[in-house]
Amino acid sequence: MKPALLLLGGLTGLATLGAAAVSGGTAAPRSSSAYTDSATNCRVVDGDTLHCDGGRIRLLGIDAPELPGHCAQGRACAPGDPYASSRTLADGMGDGRSLKIETVGSDRYGRTLALVWGARGDLSCWQLTHRAAIYKPRWDNGGLVAATCPRDAQ
Asked: Of 61, 73, 85, 106, which shows the fewest CB atoms inside 10 Å?
């Protein structure tokens, strides 16, 4: 598959997806050097979305509880406390001045889909490990979250 170039405000990400990124879900956790770009001036929108450099980044492969009024009627939204989930993400992110990212595409709302590495490691894994989000295999492009996160987090 050819690399995809994504421009988002001041953020440029170059990501290549392929079979090498996934090795049966048993790969060692990705180090920060595995991420291809960075994002700055980030803040938490909710438990699975960040606002960085003028654009939104949706964490890959997870779904966090929705803030009041944000769960569309008829949709099965993730269970839990949306405020606690947001606080957990902020804790994993650290100061948010600079996060490492690996862009994998965009969602139907135009948000960047990405693996994001914060102060405490991969943020999708962080949210799963802390039970602040649930794993969504069909939202895990290329199985990257499954390959990155510890098995007990999924």
From this structure: 73
Cα separation of the two ends of the chain: 27
pLDDT tens figures, 94-123? 987 889 999 999 998 899 999 999 999 999
Which residue type does 112 have?
A: T
Cα-Cα-Cα-Cα torsion 90, 104, 70, 128, nearest 10 degrees, comes to -50
Contact indicator for 117, 101 with CB cutoff of 8 Å: yes
Q: CA–CA separation, 15 vs 13, rounded Å?
A: 6
Contact 144, 61 (CB under 8 A): yes
User: What's the burial of 65, exposed, middle or buried (CB within 10 Å: 0-12/13-18/19+)?
Assistant: buried
Task: Judge if pTM exceeds 0.85.
Answer: no
